[in-house]
Structures
1.
Amino acid sequence: MLIFAVESSCDETSLCLMKSNGEVLSHKIASQEIHNNFGGVVPELASRSHLLNLQSLYKKCLTESGINPGDIDIFCSTCGPGLIGCLLVGSTFVKSLSIGFQKPFYAINHLEAHILSPTINNKIIFPYLCLLLTGGHTQIYLVNGVDNYSLLGETKDDALGEAFDKVAKLLNLPYPGGPAIEEIAKNGSIKSVLLPHPLEKSNTLDFSFSGIKTAVNLYVKNNIINQKIKNNIAASFQHKVTEILKHKIKICFNKFNNIKIDQLAIVGGVGSNKYIFAELKKMCSNNNVEIILPPKDMFSDNAAMIAWTCIQKLSLKNFQEGLHFKNDPRLQVGIKK
Ligand code: KG4
Ligand code: ZN
């Protein structure tokens, strides 16, 4: 069986042709550099770029894989959450193909695709904990199985990726801010700038990152900023948010001491941060928990995770075709415990 998937929820246009065993025949990810000068994604520019990218990437996918579009069995695309214009451009493109070739279309939840992304390259032991760290979401799930997720906690204000991007903007670093902060933090000292640890004394699994961002803002306003100080701010910020993540995972380990949890998945764009990974790994090793990650090109937004999620869900009896699914910018996954 051949699956064709498109991801276009934000500023990456991505297409993937995948076999039902997970073998990738072609996978294209076009990042939109047009937003770099704005310090964030401009929705209208993102929608227009998807429109420009889709046709040429589609042709490239077919040429690279040697696949005739008539041989594709299943069409799917991200239908939420995300920017509504971007979702509409991508899903309308794929829905049109599905109608034209008279093959089924399935709507995929972007967050669910991130959650399931490490199941393509790891031997999974359910239930696993999943730390979902993207530009728009920061959530912790207990993943009991495909289509069986419990939302344990989430951010009450900024998402972690958003906080990385905003701090980067304060330091005059390019967008997206995460990789830029990770890079300069290597030359900084982690304890040089005092930052708050919101909700430190609480047992909640919810997050709050806006106070840290405000503290960085104040520090930048009250000090003369040179490269050394920028490095120190980046290192202190990255360290503080890592401490917060570690604290939450510790709470999870205590909360679930009656359920055996063998794996912690770290997914989404921020999940590619090597400092965060190394620190969480140390903590997890002490608790005999394995960290599982998606393949390198499946941290940030990509269509391979969309195709893979479609394949996983097709094995469930209740997965309905989605030609009439209404794109939902706030589509959710899981039920809060
Ligand atoms: O998952 P993703 O590609 O898109 C969303 O679904 O939102 O995540 C994008 C976010 C951006 O905020 C970006 O700054 C952040 O992931 N990011 C990182 C790193 N690479 C990307 N944050 C910290 N460290 C990184 N290395
Ligand atoms: Zn994403």
2.
Amino acid sequence: MSAERGSSFFIHTFGCQMNQADTGIIAALLQAEGYLQAEREAEAGIVLLNTCAVRENAVERVEHFLQHLQGRKKREKGLIVGVAGCIPQYRREEMFSLYPAIDFLAGPDTYRTIPSLVEQVRRGGKLASLEFNSGETYEGIEPARDGATSAFVPVMRGCNNRCAYCVVPFTRGRERSQPFSSVMLEVQKLVTSGYREITLLGQNVNSYCDVENGYDFSALLDAVSREAPLARIRFTTSHPKDISESLVRTIASRPNICNALHLPVQSGSSRMLGRMNRGHTIEEYLEKIALIRSVIPDVALSTDIIAGFCGEREDDHQASLDLLSKVRFDSAYMFYYSTRPGTFAAETFEDDVPEPVKKRRLQEIIDLQNSISNELFQEAIGTVVEVLAETESRRSSEQLMGRTAGNRAVVFDRAHYQPGDLLRVLITGATSATLTGRPVPAVLP
Ligand code: 5AD
Ligand code: SF4
């Protein structure tokens, strides 16, 4: 293996936006030690998988990759394979016996050890660095970013909730927030570099709290939007129980904060929400939605929903369908329940909804949500929307792809526009996942 190859790395990222942001942190840590980021996995001597454990199928995808890397290891002496993120934190050292390709393991709180793990592996042996550190916010590390238009800024990590189905509190540990001053410093740098969209990230982003300086999430969001007035500001994921009136008013009052909220509901049935330990009923959820819509009438709402949680009956499932019809979310991430060993649900409840029933209920949820999203898309035809151009369209270099403030993808004629431009687009058509249109001149003041 050439020296260059041995010192170059490639990271495969699985799972949520938080993991994508963490990949940027890992890349920055490796680059600071002189490692180079390879364009393709085949060019790298160090391959890392940054993993997600939240659902069984996410874990299965990683397993397939590890089989492929086992094949590569047989052919290429000296190839180093590391697994980072939620799966190793959850499965711990048993990973080594299950997947012989792995040389080292690092959890979400130990990314700083990765460069030294690589060095130690080179000298021989297999290593795990899986301690929790509830003080670790990765303050001061500027993540490596791809693209120059949109940037993620993790502002808090971990989760103090105990939703019965969820593995996150076991993999990412207790909540901790990045100090206000350090978030602002990162935002200033992004502004100087010309970023046009900043997404504040956290497992429960709206429970952000800088205790020493007295900033809650709405104060942080307000300050970020003022520091970056030319950028769109987004944030995810919000917990319904932590949606405050002041947060809703901040979103409404600041023009550059996108009128969009991702608010996972998980089920339309209060009985199931109780079993899930979500901390609110469906009536309370709907009250929050009513508050949000009364203050931000054009808000785009999205959600997460799980079909077939332990003990779910047909009437609970019907309540989830009714909720989708009532709220008419712009979009939803829809899953069927998979038991995660060690969670409260796995220890306490029987996973008693048969798989075919889970899948059928999920399909009904998907079909209903797709028809609602389609209707909302059709209603958008003929309107003029503000779009941030992101990339060239996959189909043609004559077209660009961008997003509305409500996060809808729009493909439009390129004209003289470039990625990074904010422009007005007349919507002329809609496919199942994308709006299409053409730029219209900006209205002069
Ligand atoms: N099974 C299915 N979906 C799950 N989620 C979390 N845990 C599970 C599980 N065990 C979903 C929730 C959460 C999203 C990130 O993943 O909807 O909001
Ligand atoms: Fe998991 Fe609930 Fe925490 Fe979200 S709020 S990460 S679903 S425990």
3.
Amino acid sequence: MNFFVLTLFPDMIKDTLSHSITGRAMKEGKINVEPINIRDFSNDKHNHVDDYPYGGGAGMVIRPQPVYDAYKSIENKVGKNTRVVYMTPQGETFNQKMAEEFSKEENIVFLCGHYEGIDERVIDEIVTDEVSIGDFVLTGGELASIMIIDAVSRLVDGVLGKAESFQDESFSESLLEYPQYTRPPEFMGKKVPDVLLSGHHANIDKWRREQSIIRTIEKRPDLIKNAELSKKDIEFIKKIGKYDLLK
Ligand code: SAM
């Protein structure tokens, strides 16, 4: 999968993603991350990319021309139907479902704003999706796009090794993941649940499923209504007295 990032800070993108699992995926060619420096496309003799906002007010606004030309420089490579995602606090909030949807694309372009943002006309011209990473304001879209590239990459075939599987992970089936334990079997007087040491796979699966349900109900009760629940799951929810949450 190819990620193109239109940005004023290309080093931030490559440097951050070149570690750990995303770094390995880039080296192995499972993902390709290509930052495009918007500044390289400025037609201003001082390479300025921003200007004062019409109507006054604080801060600077990124001019439409360098953004448009930066996008045009990759349009041939990505094709006209590629999603161009503007990172903005005004967008739809990113979630795992969106990560799954993005991971099906072959190419995806992220547009990172800075300062007060980007001239609206170029957003209207090239952007297909507006995405936020939460209800807060960052200085720029770089960290937001990195976060999304990370979440999407790990869903791309071959990026995670067997040992790093995303099966059962939080938000799959709208449930949070069960608690995890590793060695030693006892730490500060706290023991790993016996069932996990039993080697009885059916019992372990049952325990994990129930723990997922309990966790979701305790930590994110808003999710449980949309969870993919079996008859057994519903029986269990009735048993723990939380059936009302499904109504
Ligand atoms: N003036 C803009 C507003 O109030 O909507 C905020 C501009 S912000 C300081 C600069 C850039 O950071 C934005 O253009 C956007 O690319 C990025 N950004 C800030 N917060 C973000 C968020 N929550 N999610 C995604 N991108 C964000």
